[in-house]
UniProtKB/TrEMBL annotation:
Molecular functions (GO terms): G protein activity; GTP binding
Record lineage: Eukaryota, Metazoa, Chordata, Craniata, Vertebrata
Catalytic activity: GTP + H2O = GDP + phosphate + H(+)
Broad class of where this protein is predominantly found: membrane
Family recorded in the similarity comment: Belongs to the small GTPase superfamily. Rab family.
A Pfam family assignment: Ras
Membrane topology listed for this record: Lipid-anchor
Name of this chain's protein: Ras-related protein Rab-13
EC number, UniProt record: 3.6.5.2
Keywords: Cell membrane, GTP-binding, Lipoprotein, Membrane, Nucleotide-binding, Prenylation, Protein transport, Transport
SUPFAM superfamilies cross-referenced by the UniProt entry: P-loop containing nucleoside triphosphate hydrolases
GO cellular component: plasma membrane; recycling endosome membrane
GO biological process terms held by the UniProt record: protein transport
SMART domains noted in UniProt: ARF (SM00177), RAB (SM00175), RAN (SM00176), RAS (SM00173), RHO (SM00174)
Length: 201
């Protein structure tokens, strides 16, 4: 049977418990949101197919449990990921500080050269904000990765974040398979909504 997609990309979301990893994946794959908090046990995944530069990209998005007790299980999945999304909660300073530890975990467990992205989630609750946007931007810059503030609740920047990561991975593999080929910036063609509160670097 013919394949229904051109590429399969495996993405992984990591970050402290409660930052909204599951909600971001559910928003992206099913376009819905639930206020009830059910902590992830171990690992789970959802699928969504998206189109970038005329290519059908099947995204297999892995959701990891943020709780420390699942670390051995979850880190075992890092190596198979082509892209890793680090998530913190803009209303929770601790979750932002812990990003350094999650970065370390990537270094220890993921493939070298894995595409990374930083998300500051829950930007719909500005009133409870503890982490200013420029701190997220600065951290992302230090690691030379992209940054978005997102809201799984309002859906702000959720599609943009996933599509941008997929686009970056596509660009990387296209460049690799066509050495010497002229570099094309696929990012410029991805659909980007403008946002005033939650923005991208
Ligand atoms: N206001 C608001 N609440 C959110 C948002 N994203 C998630 N939440 C809420 O935050 C809580 C935790 O969300 P989850 O997606 O389960 O968090 P998680 O990171 O997957 O947590 P673990 O599975 O324990 O690692 C839930 O009550 C969600 O409804 C958001 O963008 N805005």
């Amino acid at each position: 049977m013919a394949k229904s997609y051109d590429h399969l990309f495996k993405l992984l979301l990591i970050g402290d418990s409660g930052v909204g990893k599951t909600c971001l994946i559910v928003r992206f794959s099913e376009d819905s949101f639930n206020n009830t908090y059910i902590s992830t046990i171990g690992i789970d995944f959802k699928i969504r197919t998206t189109e970038i530069q005329g290519k059908k990209i099947k995204l297999q998005v892995w959701d990891t449990a943020g709780q420390e007790r699942f670390k051995t299980i979850t880190t075992a999945y890092y190596r198979g990921a082509m892209g890793i999304i680090l998530v913190y909660d803009i209303t929770d300073e601790r979750s932002f500080e812990n990003i350094q530890n999650w970065m370390k975990s990537i270094k220890e467990n993921a493939a070298a050269g894995v595409e990374r992205m930083l998300l500051g989630n829950k930007c719909d609750i500005e009133i409870k904000r503890k982490v200013p946007k420029d701190r997220g931007e600065k951290l992302a810059k230090e690691h030379n990765i992209r940054f978005f503030e997102t809201s799984a609740k309002s859906s702000q920047n959720v599609d943009e974040a996933f599509n941008t990561l997929a686009s970056d991975i596509l660009m990387k593999i296209t460049k690799r398979s066509a050495p010497g080929a002229k570099e094309v910036d696929l990012r410029s063609s991805t659909k980007t909504k403008n946002s005033n509160k939650c923005s991208l670097v």
